[in-house]
Structures are given as C-alpha cells and as structure tokens.
Amino acid sequence: MATAIIYTKSGGGKTVNTSRVEGKTRLIDSDNSSVVLQNFDRANVSIVRITSIADFMVEFEASASSGEFQNIIVDNVTDVIDRWLLELGERGKNGGNPGIQDYQTVYNGIKRLVRKASDCGVNVILNFWQDTYIFTNGDGAQTSMLSPKMPQKILENICGLCNIVAHIEVFEKDDKKTWFYNMNGTNNLYAKDQLFCRKTCMPEDIFNGKGKK
Description:
The protein is an alpha/beta fold. The chain has five helices and ten strands; from the N terminus they run E-H-E-E-H-E-H-H-E-E-H-E-E-E-E.
C-alpha cells in the first residue's frame, strides 16, 4: 500500500479531487471541508468528522484496521497540526499558548502518524494546505519554493516518508477546467512519484499507475 501527500492553497480542490480516488474510502475531516462533497457524487466515500486529536487518533486506527476501506484521506493534516497545538496550549501553563515541549510533541506525533500510515495496510492520502517560503542557495541566491504547509523542522522528514508528493494544478481550455496532480519535482516545487515515476496524473489514478511519465 502507499502514502501520498496532496497539497494546494485553501479552496484549491483538495477535498473534491482526493475523494475521486478509486476504491472504498474513509475521509477523516478535521476542518469541515467535506461539506463541499454534498455537491458531488461520491458514493464510495464515507465521511467522519473529528472534534479533537483524541477523536482523530481513534478514527484513523479504526478505519485502518476495519478491513472495510481501500483508502483513508486525512483532510487536512495542516489543520490537525494546528488543532493539536491549540489543545496542548489550552492544557498548559502559558496562558493558552503552546510551549516548546508541545511543539516537539506534535512534531513527533506527526512523524509517528506518517510512519503508521505507510504500514497500516491501506492507501493513505494526507491533504495539506500550501506554503511558500524563501530559501537561500549556497551562492547566496534566493529561491521561492512551494511546499505542503507544515513546520519546516519536519518538512523534509514527512515528505521523504511518503511515496507520492503532488501539487494540485488546473488546465484550462475553452472555459473548461481540468484538475490534475503535478508530481514533477523542481527547484521551486516539492513533488515526487516513487511508485510509478510519473510527472502528472488524474486524481482518480493516483494509486493505479496511469498518468504521464
């Protein structure tokens, strides 16, 4: 089975497009994005809303071990990280703000989640919002980079653990829009496809190997 990171800006089509994946799918919704699916036919998708990190952990484990689903979609991990930090901050002694140890708890928790996703017996799609940051090359030149939105300290680790990292993009022709996954990594874009070495594919084909190499 495989793990994939899908990312784009807020409202860029993560929920609508990742839910096109083939097979019976459990969508774990942390940010109420699944409300958009009432406008689409997604008979193969079962949705569960979570209200806490404890709920999320229980739902992920139950969905992965049920034997009922071929895919799990976590929608979205950027919000899961934010929610987790807020919960820890509310329990702490920093006036509701997370402390240094809380950040480390969340960083390690997300690493464990991704490792579990890669070995849980189903395909897992991890949706993220999009981030843009500037990094400086060895020669001093600065480059703008598009990446999944997560703390910089764990970005390389999390992307490295996943088989696919894809950015959602749109092709427009004759007033018709077609959404697709860009998996062609460059100096300006975090992306890869370790499974099939594709440059692009349609959302429904993410795990079946179809697409452009």
